[in-house]
DNA sequence: AGAGCGATTTTTGTCGACAAATAAAATACA
DNA sequence: TGTATTTTATTTGTCGACAAAAATCGCTCT
């Protein structure tokens, strides 16, 4: 599967400051989409020749990824994709539920007209992804939908924290969606519609309530999933 | 003031992997303690000769700091210490209050016996700093106190988010404490004692209530401060 | 044959140097 | 004298190379 983007394009020229960002973005996506599963070794020289650049910009991208906890670096030895902490999964869900509630509540309070259009656009993309049964697109558009709601809440700290959590969760969600064979989430589409309605109505309490049940339902589904497949085949 | 640590120690040898961490830690502290005020230019070569090392490890440290938003990098031009966003200060306080509440609440729920000892130790250090009227120590020990409470809550995501906020706030708190001439915070010492008591009693609702009033009181003081000094002399 | 020890290989951390990009200075021109 | 343009200088981004650490392999000795 040497897919999508050919790293060695015919033009060997690359714009000056773009190296690190390109490597960072691509590696990050590959990690979050489980193309690079947890535990995968990260080889600097391999990446260097893959992107046809020196090790220096690669290292800077890796430092950034390490700063976000996506890769783990043993002092003088290898560096690899960080593991998912399955044991403390419930703490992650607690945080996720809270941020769902807070951001949705704030959106109901502070959103402007333009925000709603953005949110509806994201919701349309999510619905399309569900229709097409495209798991990766579902994850991405679902995150974008809730991220747009958070943006409408107009608190950059909360949106920052929330996006951070959504990223963390992308790997877990990836497991979730791919296990359910890309069906089922039609229900989420409807719930999203309800959330948009209460936000538009500026019904803060209802927004909080909906966000809570929405989040808790997702959490319940995922936990059910992890209870079934004994976590042995996925944990490494 | 060529203080504390002499960068050029008699031994020109430094341990192999320690360069980036040393630069990162020091720069980070200098930024958060306002030794490097917002807007200060960061010169790579200057740092390089100051630490007697190449620009490569310095750059990696800077990349990490930029990842945390502590420094801002103009594409091909200079990099400098990020500004404090005074305009959206209230959003920061909203986030801070919420995290105070959540972490204290969880601490009341999930703490163990050992946690209380750690918390009490931090509280003692904070009281000592207040007694000594040492502003920097007050900030550090206050943050450590609340961080210990968060740890007792046993949710690494919340502690991570919370510590992040506390760091962000260190610069603002620095302004706050240095303006009040290092007196007044005796009241906080007492409130901390109350918080410890309700946590130990596992009174979740009381913990939430205390954390909320404690946080909101701090916020109110700081906002009062920023209303007075017209923010002109401090904003740059 | 197995364990201990030294040499080789691999990978990381650091270095000095070069080239692109931008700002600052100098020059020309109206 | 003021403005546009070229030249210089400063600073960043990238490169190839070297040296330290760790792991791997091979050898020796009992």
What does this structure look like?
The structure is a homodimer of 236-residue chains. With 236 residues, chain A is mainly α. Chain A folds into 2 domains: 17-81, Orthogonal Bundle (Arc Repressor Mutant, subunit A); 89-228, Four Helix Bundle (Hemerythrin (Met), subunit A). Chain A is built from 9 helices and 3 strands. Chain A has a 3-stranded antiparallel β-sheet with strand order 1-3-2. In chain A, helix 5 (113-132) runs antiparallel to helix 6 (135-153) and helix 8 runs antiparallel to helix 9. Chain A is globular.
Concise synopsis of the structure shown:
The structure is a homodimer of 236-residue chains. With 236 residues, chain A is mostly helical. The first copy, chain A, has helices at residues 19-32, 44-51, 55-67, 89-110, 113-132, 135-153, 156-179, 186-200, 204-228, and strands at 41-42, 71-73, 79-81.
What's the number of structural domains of chain A? Answer: 2
Query: Can you identify the CATH class of the largest domain in chain A?
Result: Mainly Alpha
Q: What is the typical, i.e. mean, pLDDT of chain A? A: 86
Would you identify the CATH H-level superfamily of the largest domain in chain A?
GntR ligand-binding domain-like
**Main sheet summary of chain A:** 3 strands, antiparallel
List its traits.
about 240 residues; mainly alpha; Arc Repressor Mutant, subunit A; 2 domains; three-stranded antiparallel sheet; disordered N terminus; disordered C terminus; DNA-binding transcription factor activity (chains A, B); DNA binding (chains A, B); transcription regulation (chains A, B); DNA-binding (chains A, B)
């Amino acid at each position: 599967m040497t897919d999508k983007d050919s790293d060695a394009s015919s033009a060997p020229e690359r714009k000056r400051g773009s190296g690190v960002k390109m490597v960072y973005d691509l590696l990050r996506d590959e990690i979050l989409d489980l193309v690079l599963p947890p535990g995968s070794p990260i080889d600097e020289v391999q990446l260097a020749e893959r992107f046809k650049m020196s090790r220096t910009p690669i290292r800077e991208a890796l430092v950034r990824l390490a700063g976000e906890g996506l890769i783990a670096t043993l002092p003088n030895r290898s560096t690899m994709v960080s593991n998912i902490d399955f044991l403390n999964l419930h703490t992650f869900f607690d945080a996720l539920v809270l941020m769902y509630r807070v951001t949705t509540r704030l959106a109901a309070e502070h959103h402007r007209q333009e925000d709603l259009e953005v949110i509806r656009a994201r919701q349309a993309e999510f619905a399309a992804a569900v229709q097409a049964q495209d798991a990766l697109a579902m994850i991405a558009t679902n995150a974008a939908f809730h991220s747009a709601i958070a943006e409408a809440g107009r608190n950059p700290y909360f949106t920052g924290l929330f996006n951070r959590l959504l990223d963390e969760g992308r790997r877990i969600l990836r497991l979730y969606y791919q296990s359910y064979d890309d069906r089922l989430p039609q229900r989420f589409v409807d719930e999203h519609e309800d959330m948009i309605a209460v936000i538009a109505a500026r019904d803060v309490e209802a927004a909080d309530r909906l966000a809570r049940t929405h989040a808790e339902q997702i959490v319940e589904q995922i936990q059910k999933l992890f209870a079934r497949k004994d976590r042995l085949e996925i944990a490494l």
